[in-house]
Amino acid sequence: MNAHPLVHLIWLLPLAALVIYVGSPRMTGTIALARVRRLLRSALDPRKFTVLDDLDLPAGGGTMHADVVVVSRCGIFVIDTMHRSGKISGTRVQARWAERRWWRTLRFDNPVHANALRIEALAGLLNLPISRFHGYVAVSGPARLQDSLPDNLVTVPQLLARIRSENRMLLEADEADRALRVLMDSALERPWNPRRRWYWARLALLVLFLTAAGLTYHEEITGLAAKLQHQADWRMAPENYHPDGSAKSDIERWEDRLVCSYSADTGRCACYEPAGGRAEISPERCRELAERGSVLKR
Fold first, then answer.
1. Taking a C-beta distance cutoff of 8 angstroms, is the pair 96, 108 a contact?
2. Which residues make beta-bridge pairs with 55?
3. Which pLDDT score is estimated for 78?
4. Intra-chain end-to-end CA distance of the chain, in Å
5. Which stretches are transmembrane (predicted)?
6. Which of 74, 32, 39 is nearest to 54 (CA)?
7. What ranges do the domains of the chain cover?
8. Apex CA 184: angle with CA 179 and CA 188, to 5°?
9. pLDDT-based confidence at 177, cuts 50/70/90?
């Protein structure tokens, strides 16, 4: 039974919502943060570096957000993340940078300035001089960075090399431990974690999309599943199928188990069950089974 043509439009609604969400700044920012977090936690030695991410910390009379903070004796690395796909241009002193993407130009705040403000706030919170901090802005995505950009704006692969290149000991062991303790103790609890909220939003969109696609293409999906199951059964028990892949009937499978003997001298033919009992079968069919060579022939 064919579905109404309008049913085929149902899956377009969640698909459009999913595409819009994936391309939204919130989602691309989440992707950038997740990529940096995964890279640093898998590649940095946990005995020397402690990676904290997605922190809300007190700053002055309000709060500040830090994407990633890495604490080590080589200093405290304050890393902002962003996802960009165009050609980025700007200088350290410019308040606004530009991203040229296809036919349009997008303007956004200088991320290096924001990173410097974050370092100042963290220096006050931890009671450490700014010289003990390293600030980086990690860019994920297919962005192209102009040479005029500050050197602490790096791609995600470059970030790891930059951190590892900082090998001067800037903090004593007790200073690094105290900084880590203050950061963990000062992190503000969120009544509702935004990342969890957007996780459920993505899950709901995905479930809605799969449900709509399933209703729209039910017959096609059922047919494909049956075909795959048939191929799996054929591979597992080829004796139950003809060479062309069609399934044998119950009678054909029973006849395959018979042992038939035909004597050309006497014209007599007999078929026997695997257990030894004689099978009731016509002489003509008995001879066919014996002659086809799949059973005994005498």
1. yes
2. 66
3. 96
4. 55
5. 6-23, 199-217
6. 32
7. 6-203, 249-291
8. 130
9. very high
Q: How far apart are CA 293 and CA 205, in angstroms?
A: 60
Angle at 53 between CA 132 and CA 134, to 5 degrees: 20
Distances (CA, A) of 87 to 54, 93, 103, 104, 201: 27, 18, 12, 11, 31
**pLDDT for the residue numbered 13:** 61
- CB burial of 208-221 (b: ≥16 within 10 Å; e: otherwise) equals bbeebbeebbeeee
Looking only at the bridges linking them, the beta strands covering 96-101 and 87-89 are: antiparallel
Six token digits for residue 247: 């399934």
Q: Could you say which DSSP state residue 241 is in?
A: B
d(CA 94, CA 102): 23
Kindly report whether the global pTM for this prediction surpasses the value 0.70. no
The three-class DSSP label of residue 108 is strand
CB 241 within 8 A of CB 256: no
Contact 87, 147 (CB under 8 A): no
